[in-house]
Write a structure and sequence with these properties.
The N and C termini lie far apart (55 Å). The longest helix has 34 residues. This protein is an alpha+beta fold and 494 residues long. α12 links the parallel β13 and β14. The strands form three sheets. The chain has a seven-stranded mixed sheet, with helices on both faces. Strands 4-5-6-9-8-7 form a six-stranded antiparallel beta barrel. A two-stranded antiparallel sheet has the order 1-2.
Length: 494
């Protein structure tokens, strides 16, 4: 048996959350334990290292580049001694490299594994091997972490109670709805001014404490934190949108729209406060700032590299709402640049593409100089496997990806860079956004909003470019936005 396992959390469509306390069962080396899954038309097989009711760790001697953090794997089959113990889907929750072998942590999303059945299979293998039940035990949580959480919980609970009383007073006011809304706005702004720095200070203290944690300690403390604060944050609009994200490796574009388009009313004053607080945090502001920065870079590339009557092509990978392209179009309209522009947006969310289409059409207004193509496909798998739809980005002057690389491991990111680089025209550039490892919101994005990101430094980004490209055929530079939260790897083909 392994060490006591971590708590695991499962979310169903009704947004109810169940917390499990599990122990992991190590698979003996003389036992056949395999997982089979398919990505596209390719079948894959992995060896199971350990297993629990809702998760397992598997080893793959040659891992597909298309497996990345948060990716869903469907139609998987788990066999132990050739007996099926699970069929369904799972989610990739981490990736580790050890002794040249890649292992993945998988979270089962369909149903639980009958561990008694697994143990019966193992115990009857030779008639002598026995599996002993290991009692569950609560993971050890550092006292300092508990103290910080307690102080933070007290602050938020008091604030929630205060805003509830204010809400009742406003509701009982004998006046017009416009006046009530004005009072609500004043109350929210006053409390944001009063409490924002205090809340940020709590997040900062927690980040300092967890910065030295290993992965297992992180997971234990993360589950502890969410158990305490889930009810407080769960009903906020931001939290709700985060739970609805449908993409395997990108943030729900609807959540980004909330950051881009402004605040939204909620059912209670406290929920509005939480939503506005999160929308004012560096991570949220940084996302909008990222779009503005990218749009400026795209405008400059367009002005410098435009080829008269020839088309200047910009391809956006995992385009989301296409905010940076729309901001670019607005700026081009202001300065009166009139060169042919070919836009290609690729995303796997139909809703995001539909939104982009409507917004871009309203900006273009039938301008014959601008052509826009929207492609609903999985950009990560499609590019790496060179699917037929990728021909649309061939000979791009610029290929931009604002946020996809935040979710990709180094291994997958490097492979994707190689594939995208091949689609550039000579002189063309890849522009790839990534959240900096200096971002002040790392605790809240991970522990609170469940955004598992790969934060990177300048040197981290430069190392993503394969040496065979870096040495011979391209210029590599790293840009930074004004807030220092977002970095941009720019790879230009010579």
């Amino acid at each position: 048996m392994s060490k006591p396992a971590k708590k695991l959390k499962s979310t169903n469509e009704k947004k109810t959350v169940t917390t499990f306390q599990e122990s992991r069962l190590e698979i003996p080396k003389n036992i056949s334990a395999e997982i089979y899954f398919q990505i596209g038309e390719d079948a894959h097989r992995g060896t199971i290292n350990n297993i629990s009711e809702h998760g397992l760790r598997v080893s793959l001697e040659k891992a597909p580049f298309t497996i990345s953090l948060n990716r869903m794997l469907h139609n998987i089959q788990i066999l132990i001694n050739k007996k099926s113990v699970y069929e369904g889907s799972c989610k990739v929750v981490d990736e580790l490299q050890k002794n040249g072998l890649t292992t993945f942590g998988l979270y089962l999303t369909k149903s639980a594994i009958d561990m008694n059945y697994v143990k019966s299979i193992l115990s009857t293998k030779t008639g002598t091997e026995k599996v002993v039940n290991q009692p569950n035990s609560t993971p050890k949580i550092q006292n300092n972490f508990k103290i910080l959480c307690s102080d933070f919980l007290y602050l938020l609970t008091e604030l929630q109670n205060t805003l509830l009383l204010e809400e009742q007073k406003i509701e009982n006011m004998i006046t017009t709805d416009d006046v009530k809304q004005s009072v609500i706005e004043q109350t929210l702004e006053l409390n944001l001014a009063k409490h924002t720095d205090e809340i940020r200070s709590h997040f900062s203290d927690l980040q300092d404490l967890v910065s030295t944690f290993d992965e297992e300690t992180h997971q234990n403390h993360k589950h502890y934190f969410r158990a305490l604060f889930q009810n407080i944050f769960a009903s906020s609009l931001v939290r709700g949108r985060q739970k609805q994200k449908s993409s395997n490796y990108t943030i729900d574009y609807g959540l980004m729209l909330m950051f881009y388009e402004g605040h939204h009313q909620e059912a209670s004053l406290f929920e509005q406060f939480i939503h506005r607080f999160i929308c004012s945090e560096p991570a949220a502001v940084g996302n909008l700032n990222r779009m503005g920065f990218l749009s400026n870079v795209l405008v400059e590339k367009y002005k410098k590299q435009g080829r008269g009557p020839n088309s200047f092509k910009i391809s956006s990978i995992a385009s989301g709402s296409g905010k940076e392209l729309r901001m670019m179009l607005e700026k081009l309209d202001e300065i009166g640049v009139e060169k042919n522009l070919d836009l290609v947006l690729i995303d796997q969310e139909a809703e995001a593409l539909d939104y982009s289409n409507k917004k871009i059409k309203s900006l273009v207004r039938g301008d014959e100089h601008i052509m826009c193509r929207l492609i609903k496909e999985d950009p990560l798998m499609g590019v790496i496997k060179n699917e037929p739809f990728i021909q649309h980005i061939q000979n791009s002057d610029v290929i931009v990806s604002a946020g996809l690389f935040d979710y990709l491991s180094d291994r997958v990111a490097s492979e994707l860079i190689t594939c995208l680089f091949a689609k550039l025209r000579p002189g063309g550039s890849l522009i790839l956004g990534n959240v900096s490892n200096n971002s002040p919101d790392q605790f809240s994005t991970d522990y609170l909003l469940e955004w598992k990101l790969f934060h990177r430094s300048r040197s981290d980004l430069q190392k993503l470019v394969p040496s065979e490209l870096n040495k011979t055929s391209c210029k590599v530079e790293v840009l930074e936005d004004s807030l220092g939260i977002n970095l941009f790897l720019v790879v230009t083909k010579k």
